Each structure stands twice: as structure tokens, then as C-alpha cells.
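Board notes, transcribed. Complex of a protein with dihydroflavine-adenine dinucleotide.
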Amino acid sequence: MLIWPATRFVAGEQAAEAFEAARDLNAKGILATLDLLGENVTDPEEAHASCRSYIDVLRGIADAGVDSGISIKLTMLGLDIDPGLAREHLVSILQAAEATGSWVRIDMEGSRYVQPTLDLFREVFPAHRNVGVVIQSMLRRSAQDVEDMIRLGASVRLVKGAYKEPAEIAFPDKNDVNAAFDRLAGRLLENGERPAIATHDDARIEHAIAFAAARGITLGGFEFQMLYGIRRETQIALVERGYQMRVYVPFGEKWLPYFYRRLRERKENVSFVLRSVSRR
Ligand code: FDA
């Protein structure tokens, strides 16, 4: 059951609640991407079921008439069991998305999944152009990955990275993560394919805006993305300034790992939860 503090970050347990959240966002001029929560599936039957559920979500988006794509995690589709199985599921989802005219973003998970995720992406991308990936600025390898994705003509969502990673592979200092974010955002804005600048950080957003303006990059050439429930006023303010904004709307019964990542990323959220619980 979705407990109360988590409802700030998760639209609900049912797809209908996610469609409703997308409809509300659309009414404010904001696009959506729906994420059916779940990850690290170890049972092939469960991976099949996740694939079928995502196909239902795509049909639901079309039936509801909301302007939304989907975001998927390959470990929910069986990457831990067998990359071939995850590939089969990914292709089924991409085909279903093609049929409904939808866009699919493959989320990036912890560092051990980065190479397998990019490998699978490269395999499917030539035949399916309705899919993009995510690159995390905290990882030292990401400068090279961004160049590879630019060369491939793939759309990248740039994020800082939500997973705890060792210093050998990730910048331990937040300033370095931010500097890398600005550098990579610049590369993607200038040479990438419709990049998504996904952050709630004002300094990163204003850097991207100034960079795009200085180079005459049109507002339709990229989009900002934020997470459901975070910085709602800024989402609207950016739309009012003429930028495209997409909000990531998670839903489903398996909300705990996602909720935990949102808490870990900001200590104020932990006090918010403690205050909420103690008030009840
Ligand atoms: P940062 O953490 O520095 O926060 C900047 C400011 O934003 C804070 O000061 C606060 O005001 C606000 N803020 C940030 N997080 C908040 C929170 N949890 N609660 C309340 N306020 C908050 N990661 C990943 O590894 N793989 C992925 O596929 C994705 N996908 C993804 C999609 C989208 C649309 C977004 C916006 C983010 C992701 N992420 C992700 C998560 C991302 O890596 C990162 O963990 C969070 O966006 C937080 O980082 P910020 O860039 O917002 O900066």
C-alpha cells in the first residue's frame, strides 16, 4: 500500500492514477513520461509480466489521450536474468510504442548496468528510433558515452545520477558532478539529438538556458525534465518562459526503492517524512 509521505513522489499504485497525473500536468502545458515502478526482477515470469504491463500502459496512454511517453528500467525486464530476455522485452515494448506513436526512455541504473544498458540500446536503436537513453554526469566515463551517443544520433536525458558509486568511477565531490553536468549539457545542446536536461538545480538550468541562448539553439531543440512532486512551481515557471518541460511520473506497487532514492538525495525529505508521520 502506498503510504502517505510517498504520495508526494509517486502518483499512485494504479495506472489510472498515473494517467490522471499526466492529464493534470498536460493541462498546465507540461508533458509526462510514465514510469511503472519495479527493478531487479529475478523471475522470468515477473519480467514477462512487467513487459505486458508496460504494453498495457502504452495502450492506456493512447486511450486516455494524454501527452506522455514511458520510462523503463531494463532490470525490470530481466537484465539480471539474461540480457537476451531483456532485449526481447525491450523490442516488444518499442514495437508497441511505435504502434501507439509513443516515445520510450531507458532509465540508467547503478554503474554495473551502464555498459549492458548502452550495449542493448545500441543493438535496438538502428531499427527503433523511438527510444533514448540516460547518461549520469557523476560517472567519469560519461564524457565518452555522451560523445558516442552524439555520434549515434541518439537522444540523451542528462541527469546527475541517483546511485551511490565508488570514487574510482564517480566524482565524489558535488562540484565536480555539477561541472560535468554543465559540460555535458553543453555538448548535448550543441550537437545532440533533442536532449533532455533533467535536473531540479537552478544553477544547472540557468547554465543550460544561457548556453542555448548564446548559440541560438531554439527552444524546441531540447527539453527540461523534472520528477513528479519536486519543484512544481519551477516546472510551471519554465513553461511560462517558453521552455518544454516533461515530468517523470512514477506509479505502481513497487515504490519503495524509488522513494528511498528520493529521500537519500535530500536530507530535508527525511525530516518531511518524519514530520508527516509524527503529525498523524
Ligand atoms: P540536486 O540533487 O543537486 O538538487 C538540486 C535542488 O533540487 C535541491 O537543492 C532541491 O531544491 C531540489 N531537489 C533535488 N532532489 C530533490 C528531492 N528528492 N526532493 C526535493 N527536492 C529536491 N537518475 C539516475 O541515476 N538514472 C535515471 O534514469 C534518472 N532519471 C531521472 C529522470 C528525471 C526526469 C529526473 C529529473 C531525474 C532523474 N534521475 C535519474 C535522478 C537524478 O540522477 C538525480 O538524482 C535527481 O534529479 C536529483 O538531482 P538534481 O539534478 O535535481 O540536483
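The CA atoms of residues 18 and 255 lie 13 Å apart. The first strand starts at residue 31 and ends at 36.
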